[in-house]
Amino acid sequence: MKRLWMGWMVLAGAALLTAPAVARAQAPAAVSVPKPGYPRLTKLAPNVYGYEEMQSIDRGLFSTGVMFVVTKDGVLVTDGMANPTATKEIVEAIAKITPKPIKWVVIGSDHGDHTGGNDAYPAGVTYYVSPTSKATLEKEEASPRFKPGSWKLPADAVVVPDRKTLDLGGEQVELMFLGPGHTGGDLEVYLPKERILAMSEVYLNDVFPAMRSATPTEWLATAKKALALKNVRTYVPAHGRIIAGPQSRADFEKFVKAMAYVIADVTALHKKGLTVDQALAQVKWGPYESWPMSKQQGQIAVRRIYMELNGELK
Ligand SMILES: [Zn+2]
């Protein structure tokens, strides 16, 4: 185990030396890690694909993914990667499938590991963004920590407050805000014909629920709402394995259960009257102890759940 881990550290270190610095000021340290089989392309429908790249984020090793839809007029992509080099690889993977241009990009997550590379998308693409994510991105751009030359949300980005149905080259696409999730501005993309729902960071497959920017019970409610959509056959996560069909629903259900477990577990400690430090020392994650990021994200989850229970997140 140790040897394997050391091997990953060396690989991650090597990638760190060659990868450009993460573009956006708020971006977590997402580093592309070479792994056999990645980047991985998964066909979800005749014209719909999942694309994953292995990354190391905050010492957790798991994939970051996007979905793309090929229509007769162009290509729609959900999200991007942490830096232009990684996002350029998405552009190149799409070019191997179709000569159609990338025309539309949906910002499902406004976090840097999904937007930092957006400059690699062709100039003039239309971005779709929720009002909350737009405000978050603009706040970051105005911050003194914002790195000059980094990608900025274009002024003509289309704001989707709630729901928007689009006909893109004959493909019906529904953009939906089901409620605040991992980022607060989380936008989903539904393809009714293929019954596919791209969840962005509302769904982290087999990755410990990362609550740093979430209101925990709101995220859980949003995920439950998505799980209750009976017409969905395929749920697409922003991190972890992308697959098609009923197994993807089972996997998503497992993630929703994990989130419910984490919230119930910490709420019980709060109810017992434990201080946050006592809760941090005592908390156990049961079956989720072995999930990537459980150490770092578990501590953050305790703090966030305590903050919500104490009314400090409003
Ligand atoms: Zn992420």
Task: Tell me what you see in this structure.
The chain is of the alpha/beta class and 314 residues long. The chain has one domain (2-258): Metallo-beta-lactamase, Chain A, CATH 3.60.15.10. It has 8 helices and 13 strands. Helix 5 runs antiparallel to helix 6 (246-271) and helix 6 crosses helix 8 (294-309). The N and C termini lie far apart (43 Å). Residues 1-27 have low confidence and may be disordered. Zinc ion binds next to helix 3 and strand 13.
Topology diagram in text:
Blueprint: H1 2-18, E1 30-32, E2 40-45, E3 48-57, E4 60-70, E5 75-78, H2 84-97, E6 102-106, H3 112-115, E7 126-129, H4 131-142, E8 158-159, E9 163-168, E10 171-176, E11 188-191, E12 196-204, H5 216-227, E13 234-239, H6 246-271, H7 276-282, H8 294-309
Parallel strand pairs: 5-6, 6-7, 7-8, 12-13
Antiparallel strand pairs: 1-3, 2-3, 3-4, 4-5, 9-10, 10-11, 11-12
Tell me roughly what share of residues is in helical segments. Answer: 25-40%
Instruction: State the secondary-structure class.
Output: alpha/beta
CATH topology tier name: Metallo-beta-lactamase, Chain A
> Tally of extended strands?
13
Order of helices and strands: HEEEEEHEHEHEEEEEHEHHH
What's the pLDDT, averaged over the residues?
90
Number of helices: 8
| Biggest sheet character | 8 strands, mixed
Q: In brief, what are we looking at here?
A:
With 314 residues, the protein is α/β, with parallel strands linked by helices. The protein is 34% helix and 24% strand.
Keywords, separated by commas or semicolons:
314 residues, alpha/beta, Metallo-beta-lactamase, Chain A, eight-stranded mixed beta sheet, 13 strands
